[in-house]
């Protein structure tokens, strides 16, 4: 792991903290209409009963990923991946909300199963339905880049794909998570947004399509992708539109919430990239304080673990 500057460490922490803030902020607006630009989203009780400032499944599913990195394990290690799935299964027993695709896959995996059974479950659900491109893989991918800030970027893409396919098998998930993780890494290292530079992380036959999708998002508003933002591609575009048109991490997550529909997820995705670009310290205390959603873990602890994951 490279030695990071204070600014880079702050941006690493921002990746998880701003994502959690977006998740909690968007929770009260989930499945609602798009909002006008003069509407300021506020924290409130979530659609599924989450308390004010409590994050949802988007951030909760990222916690076990982050913890494997804190423990020094690689996300390409089957032991780390099976540990993540085991913790997801434990969490899902009494979670207020678990995505439909994720719940189906977790329900097919026997307790204590290894990677063969996990892969069979994920691919089996995809084969049974012919699709598995919900946004549940992209919403949790933010921490993945923290373990791959040096070395070949293709290693990061491989890890993002491996984590995505624990529950979401379709290629759209693999590509979206690789692109997003690459942009998060770039943001942490350089403090800037550059999604087009990540297109080489997508296999060549699919690259032109993603280049067009990225171009559409960079010149749009999250509202433009509201109707289908439960699909990983539209969630990706909505979140990218939120960040590309923003001037701060708070602006980014508020723009994502104004997009409507799956607001907590799009804002969580946007927050992971906005935090990587602008950092944790750029998020006002009004939106950083009081975040919670995992036993013993609040926003402060999330940020601390992110710093540990990158070697601080």
Automatic annotation (TrEMBL):
Mg(2+) binds at residues 56-58, 262, 264-265. Its cofactor is Mg(2+). The keyword Hydrolase applies. GO terms for molecular function: hydrolase activity; metal ion binding. Keywords: Hydrolase, Magnesium, Metal-binding. InterPro entries: ADP-ribosylglycohydrolase (IPR050792), Ribosyl_crysJ1 (IPR005502), Ribosyl_crysJ1_sf (IPR036705). Binds 2 magnesium ions per subunit. Belongs to the ADP-ribosylglycohydrolase family. This is Ribosylglycohydrolase.
């Amino acid at each position: 792991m490279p030695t990071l500057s204070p600014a880079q460490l702050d941006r690493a922490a921002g990746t998880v903290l701003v994502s959690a803030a977006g998740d909690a902020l968007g929770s009260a607006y989930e499945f609602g209409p798009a909002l006008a630009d003069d509407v300021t989203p506020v924290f409130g009780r979530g659609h599924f009963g989450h308390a004010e400032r409590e994050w949802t499944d988007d951030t909760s599913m990222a916690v076990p990923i982050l913890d494997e990195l804190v423990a020094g394990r690689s996300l390409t290690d089957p032991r780390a991946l099976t540990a993540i799935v085991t913790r997801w299964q434990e969490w899902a027993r009494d979670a207020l909300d678990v995505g439909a695709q994720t719940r189906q896959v977790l329900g097919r995996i026997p307790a204590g199963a290894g990677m063969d059974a996990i892969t069979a479950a994920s691919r089996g659900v995809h084969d049974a339905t012919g699709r598995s491109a919900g946004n549940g893989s992209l919403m949790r991918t933010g921490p993945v880049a923290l373990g791959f800030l040096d070395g070949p970027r293709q290693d990061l893409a491989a890890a993002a794909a491996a984590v995505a396919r624990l529950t979401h098998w379709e290629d759209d998930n693999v590509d979206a998570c690789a692109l997003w993780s690459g942009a998060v890494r770039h943001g942490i290292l350089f403090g800037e947004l550059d999604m087009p530079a990540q297109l080489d992380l997508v296999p060549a036959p699919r690259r032109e399509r993603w280049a067009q999708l990225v171009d559409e998002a960079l010149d749009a508003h999250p509202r433009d992708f509201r109707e289908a933002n439960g699909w990983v591609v539209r969630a990706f575009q909505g979140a990218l539109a939120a960040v590309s048109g923003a001037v701060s991490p708070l602006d980014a997550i508020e723009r994502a919430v104004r997009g409507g529909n799956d607001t907590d997820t799009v804002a969580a995705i946007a927050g992971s990239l906005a935090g990587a670009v602008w950092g944790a310290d750029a998020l006002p205390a009004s939106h950083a304080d009081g975040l919670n959603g995992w036993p013993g873990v609040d926003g402060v602890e999330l940020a601390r673990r992110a710093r540990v994951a990158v070697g601080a």
